[in-house]
Automatic annotation (TrEMBL):
GO terms for molecular function: isomerase activity; ketol-acid reductoisomerase activity; magnesium ion binding; NADP binding. Pfam families: KARI_C, KARI_N. Its EC number is 1.1.1.86. Mg(2+) 1 binds at D194, E198. This is Ketol-acid reductoisomerase (NADP(+)). Binds 2 magnesium ions per subunit. The active site is at H111.
Length: 335
């Protein structure tokens, strides 16, 4: 199969389609704060819309915004960006956005969940598009401030104006995304790959593999501090090498003993059985069954999510990490 993705960079993009437009950023959390700050620093007109006064409201004010109630930010806006949690978007849309939709408004997402699974179905007289950063919100901000940018995916669901992709690319540019690159995709591809990625590797897979390795060493009687540095702290350095220089660059930096053990034992730990389960998890996303399960869990007050957070907070690995924080901080490069 030969396919080359369409990738846009700063050279192919302009902020013009959004200049002078009023942009409402709904939510001021992980992505909301990064988007509001990056878009404002790129010269766009941003208003932060929030449900109520509280932590986000205070943070937005501290960052120099004058936050408004969601509906007030929306009433005035040309472009409405959904950066509240995925599960909260449907209600915010129904109660605070839908009543104020005007012809030619833009509805924008950072992840396709609510459109792909039809939880939000905007009318046909608006543009619906997505700019999905391939990285956590604080990194989207950090890279931008340091002159770089986190790569993004861009997609158009509804192109009422005929200019939806140009506007998606303008947001991608203002976010810093096109300093790296913006890959064109669909809501379906972004939604499914994002969920599969975060479950099987980025969040779920990495966390469980680190925990399993740490707990195995501790069960065998090794010191938790030694186990922490071995199975959790050093992973960043290995991943950074892969990030900077690819797998070959990483392999060249580790010993032959590590290469040989890695090639042989890695495949025994992550074996065909693991790949089968990875595929099953991916199919569960693709069939919509995961979305159904998550919506149901959220409807019950997210008990599993809350327990996961509580258990992790109390875990020996997290406690050990906290105890070693001073040492880890002291060792970090200073520039
Ligand atoms: N977190 C990430 O790094 C990341 C990366 C890529 C895409 N996304 C997508 O960005 C969007 C926002 O995710 P996030 O992780 O930044 O969100 P978040 O959990 O950090 O959002 C918190 C913000 O939403 C507000 N909020 C919380 N509950 C709410 C409710 N019930 N109703 C209205 N507002 C509420 C909070 O006050 C806060 O301002 C999602 O679509 C997500 O999939 C997130
Ligand atoms: C940062 C991630 C994991 O890539 C994002 O997809 C999220 O949902 O937070
Ligand atoms: Mg995600
Ligand atoms: Mg993601």
């Amino acid at each position: 199969m030969s396919h080359i993705a369409k990738i846009y960079t700063d050279r192919d993009t302009t902020l013009d389609p959004l200049k002078g437009k009023k942009i409402a950023v709904l939510g001021y959390g992980s992505q909301g704060r990064a988007w509001a700050l990056n878009l404002r620093d790129s010269g766009l007109h941003v208003t932060v819309g929030l449900e109520r006064e509280g932590k986000s409201w205070e943070q937005a004010k501290a960052d120099g915004f004058d936050p408004k109630k969601t509906e007030d930010a929306v009433k005035d806006a040309d472009v409405v960006i959904f950066l509240v949690p995925d599960m909260a978007q449907r209600l915010v849309y129904r109660e605070k956005v839908q009543p104020y939709i005007r012809d030619g408004m833009d509805i924008v997402f950072a992840h396709g969940f609510n459109i792909h699974y039809r939880l939000i179905e905007p009318p046909s007289n608006v543009d619906v598009y997505m700019v999905a950063p391939k990285g956590p919100g604080p990194i989207v901000r950090e890279f931008y401030v340091k002159g770089g940018g986190v790569p993004v995916l861009v997609a158009v669901h509804q192109n009422h104006s005929g200019k939806a992709m140009e506007k998606a690319l303008a947001i991608a540019k203002a976010l810093g995304g096109t300093r790296a690159g913006a890959i064109e995709t669909t809501f379906k591809e972004e939604t499914e790959t994002d969920l599969i990625g975060e479950q099987t590797i980025l969040v779920g897979g990495v966390m469980e593999l680190m925990k399993a390795a740490f707990e195995t060493l501790v069960e065998m009687g090794y010191q938790p501090e030694v186990a922490y540095f071995e199975t959790i702290n050093e992973l960043k350095m290995i991943v950074d090498l892969i990030y900077d220089k690819g797998f070959m660059g990483m392999l060249k930096a580790v010993s032959d003993t590590a290469k040989y053990g890695g090639f042989t034992v890695g495949k025994q730990v992550i074996n065909n059985e693991t790949r089968k389960r990875l595929r099953e998890a991916a199919e569960k996303v693709r069939s919509g069954k995961f979305a159904e399960e998550w919506i149901e869990e959220y409807g019950r007050g997210s008990p599993t999510l809350q327990k996961g957070m509580e258990d992790m907070d109390k875990s020996l690995e997290e406690q050990t990490g906290r105890r070693l924080k001073e040492i880890i901080e002291r060792g970090k490069p200073k520039s």
